[in-house]
Structure formats: structure tokens, C-alpha cells
Amino acid sequence: MNYSGTNKLRNCQKPEKLFSYDANGSLIQDALNNNNEMLYDHGNLITELKHRSMIIGDTVYLTKYYYDEAGNRIRKMTYAYLGSISESEPPANSDVSNTSNWALRNDEVYSRDVSGKEMAIYQNNSLLEYPAYGLDMIGKIKDDELHFYLKDHLGSIRATIYDNKLMSAQDYDAWGYILEGRTYESEQGKFKFTGKERDEESFYDYFGARYYDARIGRWGQVEPLLDKYLSFSPYQYSMLNPLLIKDINGKDGKVTITGNKVSLEVNLYFAINSETNPQGLTDKQIKAIGEFQQKIENSYSGKFEINGKNYDVTTKFNLILEDSYENAVFTRFENEGSNIIENAGADNELLREADFGVAVTSGYDLILASGSALNPDSDTGEHELTHLLGLKGDDLNDSSIENYGRPRQKPNGETFKKIFDINNVNIKSNETQILRGYIK
What we know:
The chain contains 4 helices and 26 strands. The chain is mainly beta. The strands form 4 sheets. Strands 3-4-5-6-7-8-9-10-11-12-13-14 form a 12-stranded antiparallel β-sheet, with no helix packed on it. Strands 19, 20, 21, 22, 23, 24, 25 and 26 form an 8-stranded mixed β-sheet that branches. Strands 15-16-17-18 form a 4-stranded antiparallel β-sheet, with no helix packed on it. Helix 1 crosses helix 3. It is globular and about 80 Å long.
């Protein structure tokens, strides 16, 4: 990849220039995906682009995008050019009202709730599908039939199931690009990497605030607030660590119990350390919480006996990047039941007697020591999670995961019983319920 002295990607694979940008740093030409003449609104959201398709014939498509006042996409209209096409350039005429040059090929409308979630998608004046939700989008209702999504740990849709039959499937590389020869009827589904819609007219993923190109692992537009972090490009996805950090909108930490299925989700907001962000996390701290994430999701998921009944538990431990520590705190308070991660420095009084430089304060604040003071044990993350979920854990001799006896036990059915009891969880209710942290 060549950046030509800037953080704007210039080319990859080929020597010629593949990407061009406007004065705001937004992509206006993408020769790799054959997208050209991109236009933007005041919020840096794409309002129009042309795509040249040479897979079947040689055709230029023009797509117009429409958004509501909150910036959520509510409509897209794709037109096909009817005139002759130059070998080198797409047609300059974008007047789609001229029906001798352009014909409407696809018109999609999104009906959203107050939070911005898609509730219904219409195509060419007919209902296409209803997204179905649990903790997140779990499937769709299409032609009055419920289809379920099978997802990986990032929320990427790997397969769609209907009536115990495989309807579509795909595998991705680390950045979300679909692997060749690893698909089955993949074009049948709109939603792909991390559960976001992949636009067939551009090959970009619509994330809400920006558009993402999984082929190169880069955003096509700049996040203005990220320019304070000079070591991170405003175009790069998930701080170049897509298996650890995903770009999602904040949601509450919650538990949902349906029959013998338990879904537990814990969100932690954090920022990157800088001169203006001293409470943001260093590279070492980010690596530590990444290890916490893997161990927590493994040890808190599986089959557990809770109150004499067997349950299948699935736990998600989401690490959500904010542009500043202040915004992480603000977002945490906006989303009840969520948590923040804080860099507490090398000599924090609260951490002097803590578990290897890690502690929970205020019931929602996971604080980490910096430098050599941070030296977590193999089960530190699993232990601290119990405090974030409400357990006190002050017995020096007891070896339950929330306490301090060694070696500690792994989380078990009794762990979940204690968490549910302290939070007054109604295990017979299928309503989503909030889990609150222990306040010292």
C-alpha cells in the first residue's frame, strides 16, 4: 500500500493512483471498486456515487442516498445509465430525471425506530424484510417466515438458517472481506461483516457514521475527532485490530433469558492514551483487556446449572472505542448498565492493594495501572467481571472466582446464581434486565 506522504491511501497492488479525496479528506474516486464522483452532505455522508459494473456487460449505475435529521440512512435509489459509455470515463450527466439517459433499477426505503434500528426494509414499493432483534439483530422475517442468523464473536453473519436448512453462508478474512470459494448463496443476505449492511452498488459497508471498505480495511471518510491521536490514522478500522475491537453503537449491558438460553452482554467504553487524554489506554493496557475479553467470553459461555436447571449461556464482552475519555464516561451514563475502562497511572492509591494492577471502582469503572505496575494474573479479567456484575468478593480464603483464595475456581452455575440474585434478576422473565456493578 502507498500513502504518498499522507494518511490518505493512494494505491495498492497496482502502481497507478487508485484513490482520490476531496478537501475534507473524503473519498471521491475509488478505482479499485470502480466507484467515482462521490458527493457528500454537511455530515460527510455519501449522497451520491457512480459505480461502473463490468461483470455482466458494461454499465454505469448512479445511486442517491437520503438520511434523516439524525444522520440515519432512510432511502437509496439506484439508476442505470442507458446511453453509450466511454471506455475511460463514466458519463458526466447525472440528471436522473432525464429518462432517456437513466432508468430506476432499485428503490429501497428503511423504516427505523427512535434509536435508528431498521424495523422494516421496503424494495420497489414492496416489503422486502423485517429485521428481528434479541440483544442485537438475530435474524429477519421474509415472506412471513423467520430466518435466523448464525454469528461469530464480532457479530458478523456467517450463515442464515430457515426451517433447519442453510439458506446462505460466507466466511471473512480478519477485515471483513468475503473469502473466495468460501460462500454459499451469499448474495441472498444484505447484512454481512459485524452485522452491517453491505451495499451491492458500491461494495461498502454502511456503519451509520461512515462507510467501510472491507477489501482494504479502511474507512472512506475521516473521523475528525481522531486527529488528536497522531499515531492512529483517521481512516483505519478498529485501531488495526479487527479481531479485538469492533465499531458498534453503544448499548446497555444486559441479560436476557429465554427458556434455557441466557444471553449476557457487557459493554466497556475506552479511549486511547495521549497528551490530551491521560486516562486513555496505552498499547499494553489494550493488549491486557483483549486477553480479558477472550478468556471472559470463553469461561462465561457454555452449559451451566443455575438454580437446579441447565442453561446454555452466551457471553459477549464488547470493547468500544470512543474519541476521548470524557466521551467514554458520557456514553456510559447514556447507556444504563454499561462500563468504562480507565488508565489510572503507575501509582494509584486504589491499585496498591489491587489484583495485579487491576480494580473496579464505582461499580462501573474498570481501572488499570500503567507500566510495570500492570501485571494481571491469568484469571484477573474473569475475577473483575464479577465486580462489574455486582458481586463484592472480599474473602481472602474462599476460592470462588469473585474472591481471593488461590487457585480460583472457574465461573460456574453458582457464580451466575449469585449475580442474578444480587441484581434481582427474574429468571422466569424473557424481558431484558440490567446488571449493575458492586459499589464499594
